[in-house]
Amino acid sequence: MSTLPLNSGATQFSASQTAKINVLSQPIPIEHYLRQPQRLVNALTDSRRVSQLSEQVFRLKMQPLSFLSLKIQPTVDMKVWAESNGTIKLRSLGCEILGFEYINQRFTLNLQGHLSLHESNGITSLQGRADLEVQVDIPPPLCFTPRPILEAAGNGLLKSVLMTVKQRLLHQLLADYHSWVKSQIEENTLDNYNSELPLFNPE
Description:
Blueprint: E1 11-23, H1 30-34, H2 37-44, E2 50-52, E3 57-61, E4 65-67, E5 70-72, E6 74-82, E7 88-97, H3 101-104, E8 107-120, E9 123-136, H4 147-196
Antiparallel strand pairs: 1-9, 2-3, 3-6, 4-5, 6-7, 7-8, 8-9
Helix pairs in contact: 2-4
């Protein structure tokens, strides 16, 4: 995974995205759901592209990206954890560009994000922000493209990546939370039912 600093000739791209979701009250508060990084990661991305490396570290194979005439597919290692106040933090640990060694050796990615609970006037909401930054040495002949054009294309690409994550956050996270609450209630109900059954004593 590439984490090396790049030279001063690297081109830098960046994008940020914020999100806010109102959360309806459920029998199990959403704080309990947010303590499970794996469910959160699978809700925000396609679970078929994610592998879990440790309790808090996940490897995400991103969708192929098109940048001018280049097509790249980054694989990003991310750490996702919950702080004591309930805030979820996300930070990239490294990135690899498969099948494109020139770019892989001259590419760094930095992703940071957070998601936290807020209460206001009796309304619970999740509020988050993600910041994505990429530095890369553009290979020839693209390196001769005017820098404003490169930056506009790169920044636009990163913005579209974050927008895709935001849309999944808005549509998938609450649906997965509600599904999790339902499964927990059903599981507890079944456990209670089984504990109340009389022991079978054959004669």
